[in-house]
Amino acid sequence: MSDTYYGLSKMEYNLMKYFWNTNAPVSFSEVEKYCNTELHYGWAQPTLHTYLTRLVKKGILHSEGKGLSLIHISEPTRP
Predict the structure, then answer these.
(1) CA angle 33, 30, 69 (to 5 degrees)
(2) Angle (CA) 54 56 60, round 5°
(3) Which of 42-51, 60-69, 70-79 has the weakest average pLDDT?
(4) What is the C-alpha separation between 69 and 25, in angstroms, rounded?
(5) Are 52 and 70 in contact (CB under 8 A)?
(6) DSSP H or E run through 26
(7) For the chain, percent of residues with pLDDT exceeding 90
(8) What is the DSSP string of 29-52?
(9) Do the Cβ atoms of 79 and 6 come closer than 8 Å?
(10) Phi/psi zone of residue 65: left (φ > 0), alpha (ψ -120 to 50 degrees), beta?
């Protein structure tokens, strides 16, 4: 079994499933709540920031405003 999903790590893929199922930009705090409530990751903000920044650098996500205050999919990326 591969360690990547469509070129994403397992954690990146799990994060992207949230964005694929959301039809609007979301705040950093909404993503954090999802990760810690629904996925039970127990991540601190810097951990989530690292994963989201990687997805932005890959061009999959786009952030608006200062830092990662509002995040959305850059273009249709659903597998």
Answers:
(1) 130
(2) 105
(3) 70-79
(4) 10
(5) no
(6) strand 26-27
(7) 43
(8) HHHHHIIIIIS-----HHHHHHHH
(9) yes
(10) left
Asked if pLDDT for residue 3 goes beyond 70, the answer is no
Least Cα distance to 51 among 30, 74, 28 occurs for 28
The Cα–Cα gap between 67 and 36 comes to 20
3-state secondary structure of 59: coil
Q: How far, in Å, CA of 60 to CA of 42, rounded?
A: 24
Q: Are 34 and 28 in contact (CB under 8 A)?
A: no
Q: How many Cα atoms sit within 13 Å of 46 on the Cβ side?
A: 0
pTM score over 0.85: no
